[in-house]
UniProtKB/TrEMBL annotation:
Residues 6-219 form the DNA/pantothenate metabolism flavoprotein C-terminal domain. One of its GO terms (biological process) is coenzyme A biosynthetic process. The gene is coaBC. GO terms for molecular function: FMN binding; metal ion binding; phosphopantothenate--cysteine ligase activity; phosphopantothenoylcysteine decarboxylase activity. Its EC number is 4.1.1.36, 6.3.2.5. It catalyses: (R)-4'-phosphopantothenate + L-cysteine + CTP = N-[(R)-4-phosphopantothenoyl]-L-cysteine + CMP + diphosphate + H(+); N-[(R)-4-phosphopantothenoyl]-L-cysteine + H(+) = (R)-4'-phosphopantetheine + CO2. This is Coenzyme A biosynthesis bifunctional protein CoaBC. Binds 1 FMN per subunit.
Length: 220
């Protein structure tokens, strides 16, 4: 039996990658599967929350009671989240948003035989930081959770992000650790919160990580 401790809470979860179009047949993206976000959304729903997921292109299954808004690009995800955020109590950004989008080649397919001697040169524009945007708009009654995948200086980088993006809690993991991060069923995380909390959790199934994240948010 699930606890009903999130009953009445409106929860927004972003998940999956974003897909940044270059031409009609090519895009820039990353291997995020959306599993951590789906585990969080499902756990929140089972605990009584009204859950809205803004999902980049991925094939995770969500309970039928979870509202799902599908988007492709970071700009679309940003706009959907900004529209939804004022009516939410909690935001949880797990999406692996592409930080940059290629300046689109155009409506026609780029042909390799049309390239000059310098080969293919692609320029990029910076995408908005969706989580930081929600942090800036956050009201005192709203709470915001972010994620951080780091390759080094995990504590300093994660705590820096928590401050900069006005988060209540950040869930950090080291990349390139087996059993953690992208496309893994498990995750090994260190959790920091705005009250100074710093906990290292063992390697756990993502479902278990999700349940502990909601427990932790309730405790701070
Ligand atoms: O700064 P960094 O990209 O490592 O931060 C990761 C956190 O910020 C994640 O919670 C991710 O969902 C969010 N993020 C975002 N929009 C971006 C980049 C990251 O919402 N453009």
């Amino acid at each position: 039996i699930s606890p009903d401790d999130l009953s009445g809470q409106r929860v927004l979860v972003t998940l999956g990658p974003t897909r940044e179009r270059f031409d009609p047949v090519r895009f820039w993206s990353n291997p995020s599967t959306g599993r951590m976000g789906a585990a969080l959304a499902t756990a929140a729903w089972l605990r009584g929350a009204e859950v809205t997921v803004v999902a980049g292109p991925c094939s995770v299954a969500l309970p039928p009671g979870v509202r799902r808004v599908d988007v492709q690009t970071a700009l679309e995800m940003d706009s959907a989240c900004r529209d939804l955020w004022p009516s939410m109590d909690v935001g949880c950004c797990t999406a692996a948003v592409a930080d940059f989008r290629p300046i689109a080649f155009g409506d026609a397919k780029m042909k390799k035989d049309a390239l000059g001697a310098s080969g293919l040169v692609v320029s990029f524009d910076e995408n908005p930081d969706i989580l930081a945007g929600l942090g800036t708009l956050k009201r005192p009654d709203q709470r915001l959770i972010g994620f951080a995948a780091e390759s080094h200086d995990l504590a300093a980088n994660a705590q820096g992000k928590m401050q900069r993006k006005h988060l209540d809690m950040i869930v950090a993991n080291l990349v390139n650790v087996p059993g953690s991060g992208f496309a893994s069923g498990t995750n090994q995380v260190r959790v920091f919160d705005r009250c100074g909390g710093d906990e290292s959790w063992p390697q756990l199934d993502k479902t278990e990580v999700a349940w502990r994240i909601w427990d932790h948010l309730a405790a701070i």
